[in-house]
Amino acid sequence: MVAPSFEYVAAGSYDEAVRLLAGGGDEAKVLAGGQSLMPMLNLRLAHPELLIDINPADDRPPSVAGGMLRLPALTRHRVLLEHDLVRRHCPLLAAAVGHVGNVRVRNRGTVGGSLAHADPTSEIGSCALATGAQVIARGPGGDRTVPVSELFVSYWTTALAETEIITDVLIPVARPRQGWSFQEMVRRTSDFAIVAVAAVVELDERADTIAAARVALAGVADRVMLAGPELLTGLIGSTLTGGAGADGTGTGDTADDAAGAAAARIAGRVDPADDVHASGEYRRRLVRVLTGRALRQACARAAGAVA
Amino acid sequence: MTRRRLVLSVNGGDHEVWVLPSDTLLDVLHDELGLADVRYGCGEGVCGTCTVLLDGEPVNGCLTLAVQAAGRQVTTLRGLMGPGETLHPLQECFLRRGASQCGFCTPGMVLTALDLVRRCGRPSREEIRYALVGNLCRCTGYTKILDAVEEYAGQAAAEVPT
User: Fold this and answer.
1) Is the ipTM of this complex over 0.90?
2) Domain extent for B22
């Protein structure tokens, strides 16, 4: 297939891109890495009249300030995979990006484009949820901060206005006694996830009791989503060794058992649809298995038992 | 939609072309410049037959607009060959190991594998598999392609003083 005809303009700055977007209305689309938009054009699933190319708008590298890892929207997947600051401060994302596409896709695809595309199987989207990330969106009225937990609305739909563009992704830096895990099931490496799970677990000051946990799921709904905190309450207060923990306030459950129970509760709550890749029932089972593995591995990393 | 003039730097030479905004780099390299080593496969970035190097990095020719390649160095398989179209050593390895059958995937395989060896030195077999996962071959079953890349990486490592 051949892409439909469209006009093209290269925007030298985000401000220029926002102006062009405001002038182009419904018929304008922003082109970042193009690894999702260009296939949609080639397959004629999208028919924009104007493409606004933001690639010339930004060449900042990742940086860290105020406890946040700042990823400029045009940060390529390959940079996420290899950049020292990303590997050190958000190892979850650096690991998960290895599951995205292939070498060519990772050379061009961008973190901002991926979040704005809002694919319900997105590895990057699930990591952004699990880490409590935010995006900065620029519109005609200026910048605003949007928590990623409020960004995804439905299939390929975000809470951004049509005239807004993501300029930055901010991720709280990984802390001591925090562990992470990314688990994904695919038929072939580089495929879209059938189910993927991103988990972050934090231990208390004694590095024994689970103090906080977040689990994000991809491939189970119309968007990537966080597991409800109420489904993880049984995990909080469980200890790595079992018993009441060093300060006596633990639940007496081992984190290992509690992880399995939390995974079962989360799997019981999701309602994935059947499609050509997998049945809903299979996906639900994957949620249980992969969430259990993710929580256990995140606990082990938080305790320093796994690199 | 108006055509615009573009100077594309391909395999070390400059080419003036007139392109539509919606023309992909693949369209222009294959249809305008007659480079038969850049091929339309899937149009979705999955199969790897349109692989070209853009400033030295493998990209999908089918997912890059021609206008985006202005001012950048484009390298196709042909750009790797020596004077008189002598084969690149990695192509020699492909021939020797029987890693090409119909040959449709070969340019993308060679460019992607070359990028891997340049970056990794001597990749493991598993690393080669991972790097080539986005290059589909329907003939060889991949084993001989892995053999060829492994052999070339060994040769290249022996030649580069460490």
Assistant:
1) yes
2) 4-77
